[in-house]
Give the backbone structure.
Amino acid sequence: MTAATNSSAGGFLPPTLPSPPSSSITSLSQTLPHPRAHPLKSGSAKESSFINYVDQGILNVTRRYAKKFSAGLDNTPGDGDDEAGRGYENFGEVARDLEALVDVVWVSGTPSLQIPYLLTLSLMLSTYFSSFGFAPRPTFHLLHKVDIAFASLLQGRDVETGETLPGFEGGGRRVSQTEKVRIKGVVERTRVGVVEVAGKGEESADGTTQDGMTEDSNVEDISVSVTEEEGDVEMDGGDGHGGWEMEVARVYERTIVELGDSLGVDGVGSVR
């Protein structure tokens, strides 16, 4: 995106894709940024700038993912960005870029854009994580964040704060049945994929998982201790209770509840 395009956003969009702090990848906190007070006006310059910005970000992620498998592609740094020109080396990098886009989409406060873009990003997430070794922290962090976004849109209010979302005031906007079916499809695909990837517990060549943690490849033996400053998470999977398998079971749990019986979704957390 050019500087001119950025300036046309009227200050709404940052000049580059925002990078979350490093602590966000080591924590399982899923707080979404606060959205705009009102949706972007359809056909406005800000809406066009937003669409161009997100589309370019999605294209950049797609290109970097493709370069992971294409040795023939130029794998040199891009102009002004040491990472833009090379393929992804671990899922933590993928999750960082996808999360930045999720945050921007959420800040737009525009349901007509949020729903299709979140569907696209969540589908990319469910497709890409299986190509890397099991990286529980960035995987579950981002999945839970998208879960909150979908659940909030389905309810029309922020499920964490109870605030009515922009565009849903007065009961005007509702997630359509078609959109619900697509969301359900992503939920089903992702939940199955996470179980498969977690079960494999693949490691990198140096014996560490792709999120940089030195762990046994068996998910049931994972033992994690995170300090209070990093998110107050303590898990021990050695006895089969707790650990990352609990996070596997929680994937899209809020979205499942909000979808409800109308689409054949069991509210207790499993997709029929």
